[in-house]
Amino acid sequence: MNVNQSAPPVPPFGQPQPIYPGYHQSSYGGQPGTTAPPTPYGTYNGPVPGYQQTLPQGVSRAPPSSGAPPVSTAQSPCGQAAYGQFGQGDVQNGPSSTVQMQRLPGSQPFGSPLAPVVSQPAVLQPYGPPPTSAQVTAQLAGMQISGAMAPAPPPSGLGYGPPTSLASASGSFPNSGPYGAYPQGQAPSLSQAQSHPGVQPPQRSAPPLASSFTPPASGGPRMPSMTGPLLPGQGFGGPPVSQPNHVSSPPPQALPPGPQMTGPPGPPPPMHSSQQPGYQLQQNGSFGPTRGPQPNFGSPYPGAPTFGSQPGPPQPLPPKRLDPDAIPSPIQVIEDDRNNRGSEPFVTGVRGQVPPLVTTNFLVKDQGNASPRYIRCTSYNIPCTSDMAKQAQVPLAAVIKPLARLPPEEASPYVVDHGESGPLRCNRCKAYMCPFMQFIEGGRRFQCCFCSCINDVPPQYFQHLDHTGKRVDAYDRPELSLGSYEFLATVDYCKNNKFPSPPAFIFMIDVSYNAIRTGLVRLLCEELKSLLDYLPREGGAEESAIRVGFVTYNKVLHFYNVKSSLAQPQMMVVSDVADMFVPLLDGFLVNVNESRAVITSLLDQIPEMFADTRETETVFAPVIQAGMEALKAAECAGKLFLFHTSLPIAEAPGKLKNRDDRKLINTDKEKTLFQPQTGAYQTLAKECVAQGCCVDLFLFPNQYVDVATLSVVPQLTGGSVYKYACFQVENDQERFLSDLRRDVQKVVGFDAVMRVRTSTGIRAVDFFGAFYMSNTTDVELAGLDGDKTVTVEFKHDDRLNEESGALLQCALLYTSCAGQRRLRIHNLALNCCTLLADLYRNCETDTLINYMAKFAYRGVLNSPVKTVRDTLITQCAQILACYRKNCASPSSAGQLILPECMKLLPVYLNCVLKSDVLQPGAEVTTDDRAYVRQLVTSMDVAETNVFFYPRLLPLLIVVKQEDKLEMLFKHFLVEDKSLSGGASYVDFLCHMHKEIRQLLS
Amino acid sequence: MATYLEFIQQNEERDGVRFSWNVWPSSRLEATRMVVPLACLLTPLKERPDLPPVQYEPVLCSRPTCKAVLNPLCQVDYRAKLWACNFCFQRNQFPPAYAGISEVNQPAELMPQFSTIEYVIQRGPQSPLIFLYVVDTCLEEDDLQALKESLQMSLSLLPPDALVGLITFGRMVQVHELSCEGISKSYVFRGTKDLTAKQIQDMLGLSKPAMPMQQARPPQPQEHPFVSSRFLQPIQKIDMNLTDLLGELQRDPWPVTQGKRPLRSTGVALSIAVGLLEGTFPNTGARIMLFTGGPPTQGPGMVVGDELKIPIRSWHDIEKDNARFMKKATKHYEMLANRTAANGHCIDIYACALDQTGLLEMKCCTNLTGGHMVMGDSFNTSLFKQTFQRIFSKDFNGDFRMAFGATLEVKTSRELKIAGAIGPCVSLNVKGPCVSENELGVGGTSQWKICGLDPTSTLGIYFEVVNQHNAPIPQGGRGAIQFVTQYQHSSTQKRIRVTTIARNWADAQSQLRHIEAAFDQEAAAVLMARLGVFRAESEEGPDVLRWLDRQLIRLCQKFGQYNKEDPTSFRLSDSFSLYPQFMFHLRRSPFLQVFNNSPDESSYYRHHFARQDLTQSLIMIQPILYSYSFHGPPEPVLLDSSSILADRILLMDTFFQIVIYLGETIAQWQKARYQDMPEYENFKHLLQAPLDDAQEILQARFPMPRYINTEHGGSQARFLLSKVNPSQTHNNLYAWGQETGAPILTDDVSLQVFMDHLKKLAVSSAC
Questions:
Q1: Quick check: A369 and A349 in contact, CB under 8 A?
Q2: Cβ atoms within 10 Å, residue B357
Q3: Nearest CA of chain A to the CA of B490: how many Å?
Q4: A613 touches chain B (CB under 8 A)
Q5: Dihedral angle at the C-alpha atoms of B722, B723, B729, B732, nearest 10 degrees?
Q6: Which of A:592-611 have CB within 8 Å of B?
Q7: B-chain residues near A573 (CB < 8 A)
Q8: Neighbour tally for B624: CB within 10 Å
Q9: What pLDDT does residue A237 have?
Q10: What mean pLDDT, rounded, does chain A reach?
């Protein structure tokens, strides 16, 4: 695997590259992370196999045989890796955080990330240093493996186990605990694992290819960012050399594994400790350090330990040429970042600081810039000129989550009340008062930091300045000292110049035959009875101000009067779906506590009333229309919760037909599958936005429901779509209820308008997310909750100044769930640079991927999927080529050199390319694709990260044979070659390398 | 003459028929010269306690174009068991069941005293009566409460197996599903959108055989052969539910801003009610009962906008063609009324409001379907409450005084043709040999549909003598007319009432005295008045008056005795003596004069005039005035200002109002409370007497009259003053100071002046 992922460029990190070579060296500093890449190419499958060892990273499974078993066991506990991932938060597939790469196909078994962790750590550490590169490779290997043989998976799984261990090393420790337990049980698994190993061998076959690569590997001095430690020197300097991680010297690795395995168990602990330190160092370097991974890679080698876990693979590895360790391992990167940056709070006082990875748990101290929880940028150092920006091709984007939830340790933004005059703003550009505003003339005036306009300070706001030119009261006023805060809005900021009423929630339940038959309605009504006690409330409010209303429907709508004075609810049927209206005013939207008896009675009766229904047809647009009209009549904003089961074919506006046609895939008409089949929903959505009516859609389809069309309104109103295909109470109840609870309880703002202001030189030009825009600057959101994210792209319109940097101010005007009109302001200052290296050193790959995925997912609406894919690859190649050309130290053309902070770009990008939207598998339905497409549109960075690169959690029990679940599971093994034709990690690296070389030559 | 009066009275009592002429001129030419057409007032369901219905079906003439019913006028050959139809002379075989017939064993229908007979038809399904309440909720709280109570009360008055339904409306229209447990359901419609019957039925889920919700539970035994509708349920089943539902009715919750009228979707509500019944129970007796407290303000059928500053149309607006919604609204309601009539249902309107409610536009709903129209100030008045209660009054048999879906067929002997009918009916457009081409009223047919009728419903039916004068009718020849009314009795039986009458023919040239003596001036006045009112609906008021005057003058010229150009010589025989006076009062009546009446009031008065029987109609034309005093027993007095004396108490009955008026002296005595002193007990009795008499009238009349108790100088005395003949006015001051009554401040002509003119014109040869 010569894949040198190394981020050579970045000096600091650069070192990593070495890793590759390092692989062999593995031990190097292991900056595995960095390294990785290059080699891969060849490898594709072939190599991979060899790599299996690669796995190393994740503790690789390599050595399956030996150590592995144990590991695996451990892992299994974790279980479910695949899906579970989220739960754990960190880690993707594998073992928790760790690494994971393991996803080796086999990985599944792993389940028990933890276990692996343990082992890994051990392994890694040992290897630690050297491994980095190795790890990478290892991972690759893993992937390949999976790809290669079906059977392999299981085993590999075990193998992965090891990876997990790595994880443990990182932060996942917690898991480790559990793992421990697992081990025992897992014993059996182990066995499996072993078997896998066997499988792996085949993969090895691949090796040949790899081998070819290998050569390069050698060449590749992995920049190995690994050097992390080197930071300072980064220069590839000494370390790099060693690192040559690029080199894929799989073979060695392979060997290591075995040992590792063994190692892990016992040793781990110690290892960690040792390693960590190392990592930390790296931290300095930023990523570099983090990369615990590298070490891991290293481990493989030495480690045989790593492999240990993955018995099978390891063996094969040896033969390979590519050095799996040389392939950058996300798991390792994550792990390293966790270790290095998870312990200290992230203080936002300094301009242009790159925050820790989203996978790292860290605290934020707001000292003048918005927390990365609110805003993350693709780069924290912006090229001063648009030429530079064009050259680098690095998109300048910010991912903004204005109402992000904060951990309990962090205070939510202070609310500032500027009284009747309203928030203080710049007279010219209307930017809000913020810490970057310069007070002058003794405090009588201030200069706007965005447009440089000089404004008078209103008398009531006057304050003297201290000797540094700062207002004396700067620290008493949130708007002068914090990055994020809120203003109370005055009536001028309200619709129709009237303070808003508290919002309302309307539950709109499909009661057609399907909904009744599956038990959905009964389940839902039962749940709502208790759920209504948990409506979001503001601050310490005793009860929620939100009023609720209920509608059921099939091809007609049933409204309910649940006025508290009634002895029993009243149902009002509206059959005139062609011309929807709200049949009642009083008693439709009620306070839950006041009307509790009537509501309970209603929810008891709904399932009964429709128990014998034979109505199978439903309407859809009229339902939304009704909800919107109801809010309009009540003169408030609010949210509709729609629970819908089928394609709306009843005669009514918004009626749809089944237009699913798989034959369109890979044709120019494929895009039509993503487009709504009628414009009616856009029109409806516009009306909803004007009313502040947000729509959350829960779908329970048994067949095609045309998600692309049904999701238009949720999408444009800032709502969410949930989909439970073939809903069955027994299987899906838990998932549905937890989604529902979360969705109902989450704090949400309504009737929002977001505006992003920037200092001169750059300008927000494009927006991605779930919202509506009627002009080019204002993002209108009927509803906005703590999960919804808007990605904003910036372009230069002038030269930036290195000294003053660039400022962003995101202002969100919204109605809180108690009906208070507020402005939330987030400010962020970025650095500007004249050197490309500075840019590449301050990028954030996760955020980049977030932007690129959203960009691509929007692209499929208008362009053939193939074009979109090519565009992505080209852009990525350009970014990397620019780096190589301008920042990296000269090296063999055969080497793939990656910037330290982008060393995961290829693997992540490959994941995006392989996602259901861009490369659908046979089992992926049109609805699934449309669903995913809209889902990603409003994801934040942490979500896209885990979405595209699922963590594998080792769990023994999961998959045994080739059954459906297994298929599904494999779907998540993103580093493997996918059934639908997506490239494996290694393959992709090779391909990317080729592209870059073409660009350079 | 006594004999004729008795004859007329007997006939009325037996057959419910009063003819303008009781001896008929035998030629077409002569008949037209009689001025007053040959016509009759028919009360098809006149109460006949002495007439038990027969439990078999009528025997019909076998000629397909005739189908007259066997009657006492037919010639019967008892031996051959044959009978000859007296209309077409077809000889018919008696059916087998009549095998035992003989001179001494006659079926009832052959006996002369059974010129009116009622048959009960046993076959066919019996369908329950249906009452569909359509309730306006845009009412003041008090009004709504009172209305709710009245409606709840009415449930106890309905036959237990009757089907009831409830539609409420305001800004929206709600059709309530009855018989729901635990949750009350209603279907809601926009009040602004006109829907076709098909749409309504689709939306109510009536067009499908099986309904999704509800039902289905236990396989319901077919309660009705009809689509069992969730919206119409037997009262015994949902009595409690409906009572609760009514109890929970709230005022229309939509806010009404200041300066606006509430949005009231009467047009759509009625349309839905009609559509609902049309889809579920066509051709079954059903009443749609509309209770409204204001004008329709939106949607189809709106009569006025919701801006209060723009008042509802007045006669003035209508004359100036300024009533912008009137035509469209009228068209809407006419369309509904026609559909309703086609389905055999009837619509009642109970409009209670201080201002107009759009009766002008909606009148056809009641007029064409035989429904009731009731106008009051508020639902919280005894006028409404008792009137409404009286709808459900029962007859001597304990049956409701209402019948549904009647078809009236008229057959005439060949010397006569049918010109038309005026009353609460619609034409069935059945042409035939006995249908005249000259129409009077609703003509061109021999059959009419009367969807709702009661024992007093009366139609004016007009005929034309077509016999040519060169084809004399043999001496002793008689003309015959048969009225066949098929209807659904309130007991849900199908019944047929057959009335067959005959009158002598007379040659107008040789036997004019006979004809003159057989003139029924009361019937003639009412029949002419109906024609006038019928014309007034479509013609300008003055034209109608001119027409009436000309008819009167011609009549006087024909039957008066006078010397040419000598007014003082003018005399009318007894049988004509009152007729000019009726015409005088008719000219002043609210049926022809719109001055001082709103369009709604005019519609209301005309509605009742066109359906009441002769006695009531005459009261409407010329109110009755009784006088009470110490000078003698109560006596009827002239409806004249000279009757208004200080020491009298007057009781006036105009049908719509009962006015008790205390003369000046009496009023002073009353104020001095003499009636409370034991020694003036006679005064107390005097005061009480008119009250008792008024009560009696109030008890018997439908709709309940407005009861007015006033005195000399009281503001309400205007009701009396506007009715009496202004024999003394400020123009003939000579009467002042004498004890001859009270002067009326008016420019209207008095009866005296009217008669003088009449005489002058009658004797003038210029005409």
A1: yes
A2: 28
A3: 34
A4: yes
A5: 160
A6: 601-602, 605, 608-610
A7: 177, 185-188
A8: 15
A9: 35
A10: 73
Mutating which of B213, B265, B272 best tests the A interface, going by the most A Cβ atoms within 10 A?
A: B213
Identify the residue whose tokens are 């999976």: A146
Q: Is the pLDDT of residue A146 over 80?
A: no
Reported confidence tier of residue A961, pLDDT bands at 50, 70, 90 = low
ipTM confidence: 0.85
Burial, A776: exposed, middle or buried (Cβ in 10 Å; 0-12, 13-18, 19+)? exposed
Determine the Cα–Cα distance for residues B368 and B348; give it in Å rounded to an integer: 11
CA distance B746 to B744: 6
* A568: nearest CB among B184, B186, B212: B184
| A566: nearest CA partner in chain B | B248
| Enclosing H/E stretch for A680 | helix A680-691
Three-class SS state of A765? strand
Residues of B with CB under 8 A from a CB of A: 172, 174, 177, 180, 182-190, 193, 195, 202-205, 210, 212-214, 216-217, 248, 250, 253-255
Residue whose structure tokens are 């038309």? B420
In this predicted structure, what is the pLDDT of residue B632? 87
d(CA A970, CA A978): 8
C-beta of residue B417 within 8 angstroms of C-beta of residue B466: yes
Taking each helix axis from N to C end, the angle separating A941-948 and A845-859, rounded to the nearest 10 degrees, works out to 80
CA distance A214 to A141: 13
Residues of A whose CB is below 8 A from B254 = 585
**Residue A843: strand, helix, or coil:** strand
d(CA A589, CA A572): 14
Q: Is the Cα dihedral A189, A190, A194, A196 positive or negative?
A: positive
Give me the DSSP letters along A130-164.
THHHHHHHHHHHHHHHHHH-SSSHHHHHHHHHHHH
Contact of A574 with chain B, judged by CB distance below 8 Å, is answered with: yes
Least confident of A70-84, A916-930, A975-989, B239-253: A70-84
Strand, helix or coil for residue A561: strand
User: Would you put residue B482 in left (φ > 0), alpha (ψ -120 to 50) or beta?
Assistant: beta
Cβ-Cβ contacts under 8 Å for A371 (sequence gap 6 or more): A346, A348, A364, A404, A406, A410, A483, A484
| DSSP letter (8 states) at residue B442 | B
Distance in angstroms (rounded) separating the CA atoms of residues A620 and B608: 52
Distance CA A997, CA B636 (A): 124
Inter-chain residue contact A570 with B185, CB threshold 8 Å: yes
Structure tokens at A582: 């709200």
Q: What is the largest CA-CA distance in chain B?
A: 88
Per-residue model confidence (pLDDT) at position B152: 94
- With beta carbons less than 8 A apart as the criterion, state whether A532 and A592 touch: yes
Contact B541, B594 (CB under 8 A): yes
Show the low-confidence residues of chain B (pLDDT under 50). Answer: 1, 209-227, 735
